[in-house]
C-alpha cells in the first residue's frame, strides 16, 4: 500500500496544476503558508485532517479526492 502522504502529495500537486494555480496562489486560497503547501506536495509533512479539509475546499473537491 502506498504511503498516504505520497498519495496526498501527488493528488494535491495534480489537482492544483490542473486548476492552473501556483503554489503561492493556492496557498493563499487555502490560507496556508506557501512553504507548508510545498512540504505537503513533497510528502515531507503529515498534515492534520483540518489542513486536508482546507486544501480540498480550496480546490473545490472532496477530501476523498485528495486521499484516493
Describe the structure.
Helix content is 69%, strand content 0%. The protein has five helices and no strands. The protein has helices spanning 4-18, 23-30, 34-41, 49-59, 63-67. The longest helix has 15 residues, at 4-18. The radius of gyration is 10 Å and the shape is globular.
Strand content: under 5%
| Poorly predicted segments | none
Q: What is the average of the pLDDT values?
A: 95
Q: How would you describe the shape?
A: globular
Supply the helix-strand structural class: mainly alpha
Helix residue percentage: 55-70%
Q: What is the number of beta strands? A: 0
Largest sheet: none
Q: From N to C, what is the helix and strand string?
A: HHHHH
**Number of helices, where a helix is a run of at least 4 consecutive DSSP H or I residues:** 5
Distance between the termini: 12 Å
Radius of gyration: 10 Å
Which helices and strands appear, and what pairs or packs with what?
Elements (H helix, E strand, L loop, with lengths): L3 H15 L4 H8 L3 H8 L7 H11 L3 H5 L1
Helix pairs in contact: 2-3, 2-4
Labels describing this entry:
68 residues; mainly alpha; 69% helix
In a few lines, what is going on in this structure?
It contains 5 helices and no strands. The protein has helices at about 5-20, 25-30, 35-40, 50-60, 65.
Amino acid at each position: 500500500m502506498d504511503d498516504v502522504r505520497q498519495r496526498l502529495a501527488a493528488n494535491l500537486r495534480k489537482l492544483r496544476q490542473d486548476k492552473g494555480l501556483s503554489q503561492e496562489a493556492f496557498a493563499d486560497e487555502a490560507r496556508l503558508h506557501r512553504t507548508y503547501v510545498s512540504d505537503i506536495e513533497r510528502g515531507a509533512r503529515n498534515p492534520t485532517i483540518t489542513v486536508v479539509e482546507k486544501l480540498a475546499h480550496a480546490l473545490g473537491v472532496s477530501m476523498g479526492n485528495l486521499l484516493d
